[in-house]
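Sample pair:
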Amino acid sequence: MNLPPHPLVHGLFDPATWTVTYVVYEKEGSACAIIDSVLDYDPKSGRTSNESADRVIAFVREKSLNVQWILETHAHADHLTAAPYLKAHLGGQTAIGHHITAVQHVFKGIFNLEASFKEDGSQFGHLLQADEIFAIGNLTVKAMSVPGHTPACMAYQIGDAVFVGDTLFMPDVGSARCDFPGGSAKTLYASARKILSLPDSTRLFMCHDYPPNEREVRFETTVAEQRAHNIHLHDGIDEAEFVRMRHARDATLDMPVLILQAVQVNIRAGAFPPQDDNGVSYLKIPLNAL
């Protein structure tokens, strides 16, 4: 029996946002994809920098890789994407799930964005449909629709590896919150079970890790490990139990530190808002709106 392709995966952890950016490729000198990049942002000064993205660029060049895709699992609320910077230096096509249009619609209203802001996803190079198949060189990718955390969440199945975004966390952390606009604990449960129905040996790569009890950062696990040990979603937990837990837990959580800044940028595929007449871009902070 032929085993599924085993893509090479290089994860770069950003401690400021607890985010993992992945470079996925077949071999040195091959095509690659970058998943969930990070633009460094200082909320105190409003300054951005590219240290995290430059680490990605250095790795891609070290391995002589050709960037074919710059993928987002969703419009993140905890960090800004570095997709435009990476595209400018490495090329590649940006892509996100097609339900980003629903997220754009909601947040255009929340932020009262400029009338010219389009809610059609055209800021991205490509909008992925559920179960769409595409390629990274010789690697085949399946875009798995996994809504619940947000309506637009996508996981990317590449051979025996799945990049789950915020659908799942490491087993001792559990699952993502579902109280953002368009989120649904019931929907997230179904999305998680879809991932956990894959073969036990499937490698699962997290978008974040928030390690408890002083353990070291980890961001790779397996379906078998999740089904046995995930504190929110192990085998035997039914939908009703999960939904009750998620609703109670979400009610206690603070909003992510960067949600108001990150979402404004990420629904634009990483572009900054149009400059004012003084040549400066501004982010809006709506008061008493969320």
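The mean pLDDT is 96.
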